Write the structure tokens for this entry.
Amino acid sequence: MSSMFPHWYRDMSDQTTQNDPLAGGCYCGAVRFEVVEPAIGQGQCHCRACQHIAGGAPQYFLLVPKDGLHWSGKGCATFKKPDLEDAVTRYFCPDCGTHIATRRPDQSAWVLKVGTLDDPSDFAPRFAICYAQAQPFHMVPDGIPVFDDIPNRA
Ligand SMILES: [Zn+2]
Ligand SMILES: [Zn+2]
């Protein structure tokens, strides 16, 4: 179960939750959330699914513990790609369609999309994953570890 979270995710102290609770929501405001526990990781993913969702860019995310996200407002709609084994469950606003978070079947943490925070400006990615699927125009900050896939997944 912990295989999704190699130790270096947890070793990274998270500076984005210093002004707890972080709050955010979808584009139209119908779905709202608060992040009430420190994130256990923060990074960027270059996979093709994230490119679809993020407009071609890598997707920037916080890993938030299972009980660390308090929802309010309208309930999220969900989607699971039916042709994928172990598909993630995607949570999005039923009105405006903003993709807010995902959850893998084999982990309890939320993968929270940074763009849904009211103030994403404190975010800095600490690692990049799925870089084998990156596009030539993707950018990675200097000095962070870059992984071709999702490390320690097996
Ligand atoms: Zn919305
Ligand atoms: Zn991805």
